[in-house]
Design brief:
Number of domains: 3
CATH class of the largest domain: Mainly Beta
CATH superfamily of the largest domain: Immunoglobulins
Largest sheet: 7 strands, mixed
Oligomer: single chain
Helix content: 10-25%
Order of helices and strands: EEEEHEEEEHEEEEEEEEEEEEEEH
Number of helices: 3
Strand content: over 45%
Length: 333
């Protein structure tokens, strides 16, 4: 298999487009050890795939193997002891979700790393070979995992907290006979609504119609002659498993004139691109006025109910008093 070198660093958080996995557990310290990991080579056929430049994405027939090299670097000011290992991952609720520990799956069982421990001086980097051997009996499906580089701090004297800092590269390995299965998706309309902040959010429902997982990126452009706004980037990191659907969001982080805007959303996953167009109205109508009206009606209903209850209580009290008062006696004349 022809391989191409990769120049793009694969360091970041799971929600960032074209990024690897980054995690820091039990360590909110900004001075935590700084390490990085990236792919050094990808299949030549995927050289133009931005997703494959950051993640290990491939298709392997049963009984075959793939070889890759990853580079680990120490960007801190101290010598670091670094562990390398592979751990399981899943796609849950439209998010690529690594296991919190070192739990394995079929993919990690097939993955072997040439070196499991490195000692790197400040600024030093080292390439490590990774091999994935797929058994002949492997079933057809896509598997997920992470190649982790991890540092663990020594527990302070008298303390019971261990700081763990790890960065990793996602693995998306499809196994099956023949060629690679298709990657495809469709966009089912656009809607706009209030966002968590002051900016409105345009949402698209995306359905994965292919046989590979999707990592959604893209941009939104808004037009209302003569004004053109954007492009606004996808703001949520959505990973959609085959056969599933998910929402892709774009925050319109710019104040725009009121009115109807033509919206054009371009979404991508790897080398697959789809476009959706629609019209949205800005500013977004919120439920604030409705909630205020509803609150006024509730207060009015409560006041009316209280007044009615008081009236009924007064009537009952009056009737009971009339019944309890003795009748007047008639004397003979």
């Amino acid at each position: 298999m022809l391989l191409a070198s990769v120049a793009l660093l694969a360091i970041g958080v799971p929600a960032a487009p074209a990024a690897a996995v980054r995690e820091q557990r039990h360590a909110a310290d900004p001075d935590a050890p700084a390490i990085g990991i990236r792919l050094l080579e990808i299949p030549a056929a995927r050289a133009d795939d931005p997703r494959a430049q950051a993640y290990l994405v491939d298709h392997v027939p049963p009984g075959q193997a793939i070889n890759r090299r990853v580079e680990v670097n120490n960007t801190s000011g101290e010598r670091q002891q670094i562990e390398l290992y592979a751990a399981a991952a899943t796609i849950e609720e439209n998010a690529f979700t690594p296991d919190e520990g070192r739990k394995g799956n079929e993919l990690t069982e097939w993955t072997s790393i040439a070196k499991h421990r490195l000692e790197l001086d400040p600024g030093e980097r080292e390439a490590v070979k990774v091999r994935i051997d797929v058994p002949r009996a492997a079933s057809k499906s896509e598997r997920y995992g992470v190649i982790w580089a991890q540092t663990t701090s020594a527990t302070e004297k008298g303390g019971n907290i261990t700081q763990v800092h790890r960065v990793g590269i996602r693995m998306y390995l499809d196994v099956g006979p023949g060629g690679e299965p298709p990657t495809d998706f469709r966009i089912e309309g656009l809607t706009v609504g209030p966002g968590p902040g002051k900016s409105p959010v345009v949402t698209a429902q995306v359905v994965n119609t292919g046989d590979r997982a999707l990592d959604m990126t893209g941009t939104l452009t808004l037009t209302k002659d003569p004004v053109r706004a954007g492009p606004f980037k996808v703001t949520n990191g959505t990973t959609i498993a085959p056969g599933e659907s998910g929402q892709v969001e774009v925050e319109v982080a710019e104040p725009l004139p009121a009115g109807v805007w033509a919206a054009r959303l371009v979404l991508r996953s790897g080398m697959v691109e789809r476009t959706a167009e629609g019209r949205i109205r800005l500013p977004v109508e919120t439920n604030l006025a409705m909630e205020t009206d509803r609150a006024d009606w509730v207060l009015y209903a409560l006041s009316l109910g209280a007044a009615l209850a008081a009236l009924i209580a007064s009537a009952v009290w009056y009737l009971l008093r009339r019944r309890a008062r003795p009748g007047r006696e008639l004397r003979p004349t």
